[in-house]
Specification:
globular; alpha/beta; single chain; 6 helices; Rossmann fold; 184 residues; binds S-adenosylmethionine; 7-stranded mixed sheet; 7 strands
Length: 184
């Protein structure tokens, strides 16, 4: 969406973002079958770079060119794709690993599931609706998961782990949902 593109390009110009990969990736990504990975809404590439370091060939998609231009590693083994995920078409049964961290686009939930190759792994972590404590309007209500929603959305996969956990990020919503699942 154009509004997201403008807002996120501005944020990447004026704010510094974490360079460290998400903890959930460090715990689980090495258990996915090696092959092609998709980083959904990759931002500055902190997660895509980690996956490339493990040996995955990574497609890293984001709407904000400014984020893609601030990648935290040389983009070897990473295809950076500037695209709006509201309209992005994913190949079916293609990816060994799909990661979606700190981003929610409900249109994509069934699309991500279909994009996993048999045996492929999904790692998904994003913010939960909760006590209303959000950062300065940066998290719009439609971008927050309901309790249990992520588990329900991926019930067609084999869910290895599902948690609702404190986010530990001072400016973000207090809670996150985190899911690790594989396509049977
Ligand atoms: C909170 S950041 C998370 C970035 C990354 N996943 C991470 O964990 O560091 C959300 C990202 O979603 C991207 N984004 C927002 N709306 C988008 C859209 N419609 N299509 C593609 N990317 C989008 C933003 O540009 C931003 O990089």
């Amino acid at each position: 969406m154009q509004r997201d593109r403008i807002e996120w390009n501005q944020k990447y110009r004026r704010e510094a973002f974490d360079h460290r990969p998400a903890t959930i990736l460090k715990t689980h990504a090495q258990n996915a079958p090696m092959g092609r990975a998709l980083d959904v809404a990759c931002g500055n590439g902190r997660n895509a770079c980690y996956l490339a370091g493990l040996g995955f060939a990574v497609d890293a998609v984001d709407i904000a060119l400014e984020g893609l231009g601030r990648f935290v590693c040389p983009p070897d083994g990473i295809q950076r794709i500037c695209a709006d995920l509201d309209h992005f078409i994913l190949p079916r049964r293609w990816y060994s690993l799909i990661v979606n961290i700190n981003y929610l686009n409900r249109r994509l939930l069934p699309v991500l599931q279909a994009g996993l190759a048999p045996g492929g792994m999904l790692i998904f972590e994003s913010y939960l609706k909760g006590d209303g404590r959000t950062s300065s309007g940066a998290h719009r209500a439609e971008h927050l998961l309901a309790p249990g929603e992520l588990h329900q959305a991926f019930k067609g996969l084999k869910i290895l782990d599902y948690r609702e956990i404190p986010s530990l990020q001072p400016k973000a919503p207090a809670m996150k949902a985190a899911l690790v699942a594989v396509r049977p």
